[in-house]
Specification:
There is one protein chain. With 195 residues, this protein is an all-alpha fold. The chain has a domain of 133 residues: Tetracycline Repressor, domain 2. Helix 3 crosses helix 4. It is globular. The chain starts with a helix and ends with a helix.
């Protein structure tokens, strides 16, 4: 078989390149997270499959409940952090720092919320908790309930920067960080909150 493959490509290097190219293409495709089956979840929870289905009609419904629960936990941490904030910048600092630290302390949950492809079925049903966070942040940055498109874009840029910080710290373990996550958050906020 090896000689047949070599004759089709002309060389081992050609075959190797084709395999790497195909693998890179397959790995580059965005895919939703593969969830454990309801049977696996029920077994791990020590309950019957029927008991799991009494509470959730489908695996999709269970996944939505997980997403909702994770967002509620993140939002509870944010609410606690901003409770003592006195000014707009303090509030933004508390939100940004809490978001980053929550992501670093909950890498699996963070991955589910922010690093996996949204399930189109959930989006079709309008079921994507957490999107209101962008609106809340936009109102805080703009200082008013009437927000501009510029404010909205600034918040998305800020969020992308904070997300990058969490993602790199969670996944690129070989990077040498010379500063703390908190000091990186302060640097990011200085860049985005100049007004």
């Amino acid at each position: 078989m090896n000689s047949q493959a070599n004759s089709q490509d002309g060389s081992d290097d050609g075959l190797k390149f084709r395999i790497v190219s195909v693998a890179a293409g397959l790995l580059s495709e965005s895919k939703p997270i593969k969830l454990p089956t309801m049977r696996e979840i029920a077994a791990s929870a020590g309950v019957s499959l029927g008991a799991a289905y009494r509470h959730f009609d489908s695996q999709e419904d269970l996944f939505f409940a997980v997403i909702t629960s994770l967002f509620e936990d993140l939002e509870m941490h944010i609410k606690d952090a901003v409770a003592s904030a006195k000014h707009r910048r303090d509030t933004m600092g508390a939100i940004a720092t809490t978001y980053v630290l929550w992501g670093l302390n909950n890498p699996g949950g963070y991955q589910i919320l922010f690093e996996t492809t949204d399930d189109p079925k959930l989006l079709e049903r309008g079921l994507r908790p957490g999107l209101h966070l962008v609106e809340s942040l936009t109102e805080i940055i703009s200082g008013t309930k009437k927000v501009s498109e510029r404010d909205r874009q600034n918040v998305l840029s800020l969020w992308a920067s904070l997300h990058g910080l969490v993602s790199l710290r969670n996944h690129k373990l070989g990077m040498q960080w010379s500063s703390t996550a908190e000091s990186e958050v302060r640097s990011i906020l200085r860049l985005h909150l100049r007004n």
